[in-house]
Amino acid sequence: MLRYQARAYISSIRLLSQTSFVKFRANAQVLGKFKLEQDGHGHGHGLQNGSRNGVQDDIESPTSMAKDSSLPLVEQKYKVKPRQPKKKAPFLSEMEDDPNSKLSSWQEKIGQWVISTFSVDMDKSRSGPVAGGIYFAECKRQALVYPNEPMSDTAKFYYQTLALPISFSQQVQIIILHYWILSVRMRALPSKYAKEYQKKLVDRIFSDLETRMNTELGIKSGRIIEGYLKDFHTQFLGSVLSYDEGLMTDDITLAAALWRNVFNAKEDADIRHVEALLVYVRSQLYVLSKMTDRAFGFGKFKFVPPDQIVTPITKHQEAMIKQKTKEEFSEMNLPSQRSVLSMDE
């Protein structure tokens, strides 16, 4: 039921699709204040390491920005101690996590024959494994953490640098944020496929939350799990709408949305931390705006780590990226690799 409601929500916001895309391509406000770093050939660098080697002093990675704050970290006080995982569930699923779970050669041949014979719309079919697999994994891994296990660098950004609480609900908010970042680009795909990509990603997120509450948190009551899912669904709708408002207006509105949702509207939240997360979000949107439909539709995007700097690229670099994309896909001739998604926009 919840996943049906989420799909209905996606349908209701399709009218925002093209407007949102135009705005997010033109409105990378934080990045707009940076001067393009030039190399010896006069070409800009798209990504730089947070160490600032060779990078202008006014450009900082989100991690560096957050660490620049001079405010002391405020210890979290909980009325109810956050529930911690009792066990570790598979990251995706047992079959997806198994590197040996590939189709045999005869199964692949039959599959290619079916696709070719019945003219299967592969862009629609691909939305499942790409949005519900690759991009779902990208959203999930950003803030995933387990007790007594080392944190990933990205998780450290959220829980140590930004001092967010380590809890299941906090992970959900970070997953929702990364879903929204991807959904902005998904809505810029041809409308026939935009809905499919969003639907597959939403379905997988809520299915995984349900599984994790049962296996990791040890909640065995279906009624309690359903109650939590309804709460997360409400948070999902509110967060996405507030982020959309920020996307369509200005950085102040988007920063306020991040403060309410990711920082739980804490009155003592460090504004420098909020700004760092805003730069992180705008950086992801900028990179996505430079990806062609074909590259994004095949799952080629990965979130830029928060310790990396994103700087604007030149028209020459953008043309080179598109050319590389065309060269890569020119060698993909199997029926299962068929696509009508653009390699130019």
UniProtKB/TrEMBL annotation:
Q: What protein is this chain from?
A: CBP3
Q: Which InterPro entries match?
A: Ubiq_cyt_c_chap, Ubiqinol_cyt_c_chaperone_CPB3
GO cellular component terms, A-Z:
mitochondrion
Region (Disordered), start-end ranges: 40-67, 79-100
One Pfam match, by short name? Ubiq_cyt_C_chap
List the source organism: Candida oxycetoniae
Family per UniProt?
Belongs to the CBP3 family.
Set out the biological process GO terms recorded for this chain's protein: mitochondrial respiratory chain complex III assembly
Query: Residue spans with biased composition (Basic residues)?
Result: 79-89
